[in-house]
Every structure is written in C-alpha cells, then in structure tokens.
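Backbone geometry:
***
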Amino acid sequence: MRVTPRTTARLFHAVAAFEAFTWVGLLVGMAFKYLFTQNEIGVQIFGPLHGAAFVAYLLVTLLASVRLRWGAWATLVTLVASVPPLTTLVADWWLHRTGRLVPATEREPEPIA
C-alpha cells in the first residue's frame, strides 16, 4: 500500500487534533482528581489515550517531515509542539498556513528575489 503525500497530510491533521483532544481530557480528568471529586476515572481513561496519541503524533510528524519534505526547523517546531497542551493544533494551523501540509510537488515555487 502506497501512502500518498495528501494522505500523510490528512493523517497528520487527524493525529494532531486527537492529541489535543486527549490533552483536554487529561487536563479535565486531573482537575476532577485533584480539585473536585478525587475521582481518578478521567486520568485512568485519558492518561493512556494521551500517551498513545503523543507517541502517534511524534511518529506521524517524522513521517510527514520526510514525505512532505519539511526542513529541520519546521520538523523541530512541530515536534516541540507536542509538549504544551493544545499546541499541536497551532502547529497544524502553522503548517497549513505556510504550505507545508501541501505535497511538495503541488506547492507554488517561491519567488526569486
């Protein structure tokens, strides 16, 4: 099965959104555990989900970096975005705005200065 660059971009978008969703779930679970009810169910559910989403995000970021031909800076910024809550959404937005989620063959050439 051949994964196209467009599929890679869609996969990155989905995994970035899922990673952010699990961050929110984990933060809400931690709030309930430590501030409100001392109930651990939210952390027990979203802790492993977020861990898996975090690892998936790192792997998909590296895949997308190679498949979509990102430079070292874009790859590093996108990897670092996995640490603070919800920044995977910001990274996804930035990559989209800068054209990095478009396959390299479909990008418009940069103007010669």
